[in-house]
């Protein structure tokens, strides 16, 4: 084990030495962080929109806790409810019929906690906590989010592929998956299972929209749909009113609802997107999703070319599919690149030697020869990433193994 570690360190140092010797135009020695999923790449688009998304709020507005006291989700603003349903209808990525219930949250993270509570609260507290699983590689925050409250109702039970316990369980299905971009379905498929579908990336800029998702519980987030992470808005589409009501109770006790200012901003932006998508004028400019799909596709093409040239890493291959929204066959362009070292080296450590911070595979329940790189950074940082990856010489690693 020590020998293998020394070999990896030796190989990594050789790569770094080679990168420093290679003729590059590295403009800075600063560390660039690609471990985060901060969607700042969309800022230029929204800057071009000018005042179209501006919301003005007077000092006497929005003072009550309540948005609709008679509604089961009493803090959900009707404007946001309508905007969410309309956008999903326009994009065609989720069923939002009148018998579906919308629950708004402070980002999808809070909604995930609310769902765990809702699905587990009806079980006998004297029995063993419900197991929560997800198929590896799974989103790195699921284990911590599940265990954070140290609830006696549920517990993290790891990789769904290896889960073999009988009885009720909760499986989280992320599709497209974070980190590897794969389209996912449930793995365990046994009696007593409860499913949570995390569809944060089921939008046209990341993957072809092949149909309307119609799952019992579906989580979406404003941050990945439009790039507005700072507003902290997420929403769940729920079939069962009892589950939705329990989620609202969790939200009530944890934060007494969700900011009305954030909800109004989200509603305005979602309405602007829907308007642009439905604009059939001959001189119309590309809508937000067309812009995002073009930008993401271009970034993936550049990254694949760099990875192909350096010979050190590999990337997943995704099947092309027909996107109902775009109206043609498109390639998936996930929000994250799932990078693998071809020679079994610690991929995260190797890139840190080049001052590139990523999130290593062990955080996602797999080996350290994988790492996740965000594709959502500003152009300057993304171009610097390509520059540094281009400096790595694959022959150096091969010569040290």
UniProtKB/TrEMBL annotation:
The keyword Iron does not apply. One of its GO terms (biological process) is amino acid metabolic process. InterPro entries: Alliinase_C, Alliinase_N_sf, Ethylene_sulfur-biosynth, PyrdxlP-dep_Trfase, PyrdxlP-dep_Trfase_major, PyrdxlP-dep_Trfase_small. The keyword Zinc-finger does not apply. Residues 32-392 form the Alliinase C-terminal domain. Keywords: Aminotransferase, Pyridoxal phosphate, Pyruvate, Transferase. Its cofactor is pyridoxal 5'-phosphate. GO terms for molecular function: carbon-sulfur lyase activity; transaminase activity. Belongs to the alliinase family. This is L-tryptophan--pyruvate aminotransferase 1-like. It comes from Gossypium australe. The lineage of its organism: Eukaryota, Viridiplantae, Streptophyta, Embryophyta, Tracheophyta.
